[in-house]
Design brief:
Strand content: under 5%
CATH superfamily of the largest domain: GntR ligand-binding domain-like
CATH architecture of the largest domain: Up-down Bundle
Shape: elongated
Helix content: 55-70%
Length: 212
């Protein structure tokens, strides 16, 4: 049996590097992606660069325009409202399914993450709070176990990273977010699917308000 490990395609590595540059805004929203210049800067041919851009376009991070090439996606207010509407439906469903299906071990994992979230909030460490917040949501989606739904959530979350604004840094938002997470957790721990879905959807609605 051939057990040789196969490296992932070069285009995937290139896509990851471009993704990082987009999230850091080194490649700003609205920026034109010059395939030739980027390929030269990366020391590669245009083919893997073209394939990488296609990957990012499938994720919504890049927008292709007829006869004009590819650009880093710009997210306006209407886009945000539509994205949060879809996330509210999907993540609400994930919270509902988690409340129904979570094992005691998984509930403990969620509870432990929330304790870390509480500490980050007490320390006013927004960066740590954000990282744990992502893990909290990811764990809920993992427990829900719907790979198709989770794939859409992951891609929409990537598009949200295009926004420069950090809503958690706004006055009072960190505490509000923490309280919302408490409500989500308590509903899940009580195995109350309707309350879990409602709490998650409220959290997403408040998150949208904070982007104004």
């Amino acid at each position: 049996m051939n057990t040789k490990l196969i490296n992932r395609p070069l285009s995937e590595d290139v896509a990851e590097r471009l993704r990082e540059q987009i999230f850091s805004h080194e490649l700003a929203p609205g920026s034109w992606l010059d395939e030739q210049s980027l390929a030269s800067a990366f020391g590669i041919s245009r083919t893997p660069m073209r394939e990488a851009i296609k990957v990012l376009a499938s994720e919504g991070l890049v927008t292709t325009k007829m006869n004009k090439g590819a650009y880093v996606t710009e997210v306006d207010r209407r886009d945000l409202e539509q994205i949060f509407t879809v996330l509210s439906l999907l993540e609400g469903q994930a919270a509902k399914e988690t409340a129904i299906n979570a094992t005691e071990e998984q509930l403990t994992q969620l509870d432990n993450l929330h304790h870390r979230l509480e500490k980050a909030a007490a320390d006013r460490d927004t960066e740590q709070f954000f990282e744990i917040n992502v893990k909290f949501h990811d764990l809920i989606q993992e427990i829900a176990g719907n790979k198709w739904m989770n794939g859409v959530i992951v891609d929409l979350r990537k598009v949200l990273k295009l926004q420069r604004r950090d809503s958690l840094s706004r006055s009072g938002r960190l505490l509000s977010s923490l309280i919302e997470h408490r409500e989500i957790l308590q509903a899940i721990l009580k195995k109350d699917p309707a309350a879990a879905e409602s709490a998650m959807r409220n959290h997403l609605a408040r998150g949208l308000e904070a982007t104004k």
